[in-house]
Amino acid sequence: MYPFRRVVIAIFASSMAVGAPTPPTDSQLPVAGISNIYNSYRGIAPPYPGNETEPIFPKSNGTVDPDDLLYQNLLSAEWAIFSFYQQGVEMFNASSFTALGLPNTTYDRIMEIRDNEAGHLQIFQSQISDKSIKPGPCKYAFGITNAQSFVVTLTLLEIASMTFLTGLVQQANTLKTRGALTAIAATESRHNTWALMDIWDSNPFGGPADTSFPYANQILDTTNQFVIPGSCPQANPEYPYPNQHLPQFTYNPKTNSSLASNTEIEYIFTTPPTWENGKLYYAVFFHELLNISMPFDTKTNTTTIPNFELNKGLIVGVIADTPGAPTLNTVVAGPVLLVEQPTGAIKLA
After folding, report:
1. Collapsing DSSP states into helix, strand and coil, what is residue 96?
2. Other CB atoms closer than 10 Å to residue 254's CB: what's the count?
3. Which residues pair with 297 in a beta bridge?
4. pLDDT in tens, 205-255
């Protein structure tokens, strides 16, 4: 009998003797940076911890760590992002994307990004102290009907990830967390670069800086649109916290706006704000490290995109009652993400 067969039989006999196998201990679970599962797993079933369905409860009492709340928010967002890729892995196969004329490696790259996002789940869980709850996943609906709508949403999610990470860096209380968020943002940037080059056949360079947006929780709140109501574990903390519950808006895709600089854009509100008579409101646009305010017409819900020369990267727009939206509470609606690169990608959604 071959040695490895003796080992297998011994393990099987042991499990039969004691009943169902015991769950793995923490030391036996995959760890990002050590386990290859977060890079090279190619199974359809979700990799750990993407196969978990419940939050992880605190194991001790005491003062929570300084950035527990930040990582709770980030973990909740990551559950949505991971679930998006996991749904894509389950819904499609390689031919789904080659039929669109995309490279034959597209499905494999999507699986690899799914693995990376599972690694992010593990990292964020590990950064929350045992004195705080670690949120579990909700159920999510992304409105994906075919492979084309999937790659459009993929691009938007990767760009949004980059933007809210720049805001979370500004929230972080420790240098360790700032370093970790920078490392995660670099990985998301690689994902986005791949999408721009392989999916959109586009120049991935977006200018000297990505867009920095200071109010990360406002972007995180927009991901709640993907959550199926009532599907989150009851023990999960509010997400994001704190949450301003601002009126949300998008832009009117039926207009002739190219979403390029110096063009008019019309906003469509899901819940219209209450405008104060006689008060001026501003459409504030964040692009790279710039912040430019334009007049906002509350009767027509229109404004003009500033003259950003490059027409590359991402613009984040909010409505504020103060030019520049200098503080969190000056923002009264938004945000909306206007994708400049690849040109027209958002209009395909």
Report:
1. helix
2. 9
3. 302
4. 988 999 999 999 999 999 999 999 999 999 999 999 999 999 999 988 776
